[in-house]
Amino acid sequence: MKITREDIQKEGAEFFLRDHRQKTGSEYKLILLPKAIEILSRYDYNLNIITDQKANYYLKIVAAKVGIKIPLTMHCLRHIKFSFLLKFKHLQIFAA
């Protein structure tokens, strides 16, 4: 998905990202926080959004360069982050 300036709309004091779902074609609207607008402006609304497959490819390259032997993927990293936070009591309320 490539975000363009035309996708960002302002309603009152809030900014929204409007687009259509690929599978159903139905429209959706996301509220953008001021920090998101700031980041989009800084990069002239040109964010290079990569797929999970491409991110996994880059992770494998980094892992090989630093000597990590286990296979890294975006999926396993999400689980690692959650368990890391649980260990440090940030999310222990969810574990109860």
Task: Characterise the protein shown here.
There is one protein chain. This protein folds into two domains: 38 residues, no CATH class; 44 residues, no CATH class. 44% of the residues lie in helices and 18% in strands. The protein has four helices and three strands, in the order E-E-E-H-H-H-H. A three-stranded antiparallel β-sheet has the order 1-2-3. Strand 2 and strand 3 form a beta hairpin. The longest helix is centred in the middle third of the chain and has 15 residues. The chain is elongated, with a radius of gyration of 18 Å. The mean pLDDT is 77.
* Helix-strand category: alpha+beta
Q: For the record, give the distance between the C-alpha atoms at the N and C termini, rounded to a whole number.
A: 38 Å
CA radius of gyration is 18 Å
Number of domains: 2
For the largest beta-sheet, the strand count, sense and barrel status come to: 3 strands, antiparallel
Q: With helices defined by DSSP (H or I, 4 residues minimum), what is the helix count?
A: 4
**What percentage of the residues does DSSP assign to strands (E)?**
15-25%
| Average pLDDT number | 77
Secondary-structure element order, as H and E?
A: EEEHHHH
The residue fraction in helices comes out at 40-55%
Strand order of the largest sheet: 1-2-3
Number of E-type strands: 3
Global morphology: elongated
Low-confidence stretches: none
